[in-house]
Amino acid sequence: MRDGAPLFLGLDLGTTNIKAIVVEEDGTIVSSGSAAVGIDYGGDGAAEQDIEDIWRGTREALSQAVAGTDGSRVRAIGVSSQGGAIQILDRAGRPAGRVIGWLDSRGGPWNSALTARLGAPWFGEHTGYPHSGSAIGQILRLREEGSLPEGFLLGFVGDVVVGRLCGRRAHDATSLSEAGLLNPSLGTEDPESLAQIGVDRACLPALLGVGEPAGGLLPQVALQLGLPPDIPVGPAVHDQYAAATGCGAVRAGDTMFGAGTAWVLVAVTDTITPPIAGVALVGRHPVAGLFGQMLSMVNGGACVSWVVRTLNLGSPGVAELDRLMAGVPAGSEGLRFRPLLSLIGGGGLLPEAAGQLDGLRLGHTPAHIVRSLVEGLACELGRYLQLMADGGVRVERLVMCGKAASSAVTPQIIADTTGLPVDCASLAETGSLGAAVFARGMVSPGVPLAVLADSMKPDMRRVAPGPGRADAEQRRRQYIQSLAPLRRTVR
């Protein structure tokens, strides 16, 4: 660490874990911190959190990160946040009830009814997503239940935390898009969507660009954290777009592939295109002039965890999972795993689409099952990429982030199955790094965000399709063909 060199702080408000990193101008991590936060699930589909617990975790993660370096050299704070987690506030800005998490399904009936009334094309045009979703259904539910206070304000986790850091609630277009309230063509709140739920624009947090500070760090907060007062704090940015920025997916043709609990794709485009296959969320990329098609595969790391738990494999890390898969030939000796283990199934498929294990024989072992699952996930990824191609979205390379990016086996399976080179980020938590890029951008006027992202991105390891490409492609085709009876008709 160079003496006196400026430092930048990236804060990532995850759903169950809050992370903070301090980096140098080239993205080198100097120190880090983290804190777990709780989430409570109810039998009625509730998924709630406590904003005070999130604020506690925020202070704890920031304090840990700052304690590992010279806090007086930090020049700015960037913020990445889980998207769509709602915090209703009273007219004075105080929390009125608990956080309604993005996993909360109680607004579903209201979303379905509004989609049926207005139609998917209406939502595709007004919000970039062909269904009512996220904040819209929840606000309609709360209003019908009589749970909204008079003169309420509509907040989200990210902007509420930003407000506590600098005194002004603010987020960017990616956060508003995840809430289902951004008109991607306009780049602002969609007035007709707001009218549907009876919310005035003034009730929402300030909508800013990622390079525009929400405000300066409040003196009392700065004193608690050991940071200089008044350093700029950025608006909250949706974590998937922060991760895309952190791993360098900042040009048209790039597709960020986040290998987390749910595998997520963010395809970067230079034009607004209709939502792919009726399942993508179209939004604005933090880099000016770019847009994104975001698709959640729903299934992903959660499926691997389920297999590990079900087979009683203990707590294997990436290296141990690699050892298991490397001991099995490509193709898992005829074992095929359809990885649709979530109740939601997969995008573009009927609700009855479910997981399936086919071709099981006495000679198959737990290692075969693990490898066949990952091969199945790669085929499902290939199906999503085919949806993109059919929708006219160009995918030239995959930029992979998450713990699985460090695997010696999984990226090769993906490259062989998709036929695309896979650039694997050496840093798992690219959301925090993306937030740090935003922090540097606020104090680097005139420097394009894409240039900053390139200069700060982690080391990349490229994995190209190998000799197993032809066989993997055949498996992908057979997999997609097997799902033909389960395809949902998009109107």
SSE topology:
Blueprint: E1 7-13, E2 17-23, E3 29-36, E4 40-41, E5 47-49, H1 51-67, E6 74-81, E7 86-89, E8 99-100, H2 108-118, H3 120-127, H4 135-145, E9 153-156, H5 157-166, E10 170-171, H6 173-178, E11 182-183, E12 188-189, H7 191-197, E13 206-207, E14 215-216, H8 219-225, E15 232-238, H9 239-246, E16 254-259, E17 263-269, E18 281-284, E19 291-296, H10 301-310, H11 318-326, E20 336-338, E21 356-358, H12 366-390, E22 397-401, H13 410-418, E23 422-425, H14 430-442, H15 449-456, E24 460-463, H16 469-482
Parallel strand pairs: 1-6, 6-15, 10-13, 16-22, 22-23
Antiparallel strand pairs: 1-2, 2-3, 4-5, 5-8, 7-9, 11-12, 14-15, 16-17, 17-19, 18-19, 20-21, 23-24
Helix pairs in contact: 1-5, 2-4, 4-7, 9-14, 10-12, 11-12, 12-13, 12-16, 13-16, 14-15
Tell me what you see in this structure.
The mean pLDDT is 95. The protein contains 16 helices and 24 strands. It is an alpha+beta fold and 491 residues long. The strands form seven sheets. A seven-stranded mixed beta sheet has the order 18-19-17-16-22-23-24, with helices on both faces. It has a six-stranded mixed beta sheet with strand order 3-2-1-6-15-14. The chain has a three-stranded antiparallel beta sheet with strand order 4-5-8. Strand 16 (254-259) and strand 17 (263-269) form a beta hairpin. The protein folds into two domains: 7-247, Nucleotidyltransferase, domain 5 (2-Layer Sandwich), CATH 3.30.420.40; 248-426 and 446-484, ATPase, nucleotide binding domain (Nucleotidyltransferase, domain 5). 35% of the residues lie in helices and 21% in strands. Helix 4 runs parallel beside helix 7 (191-197) and helix 10 (301-310) packs antiparallel against helix 12.
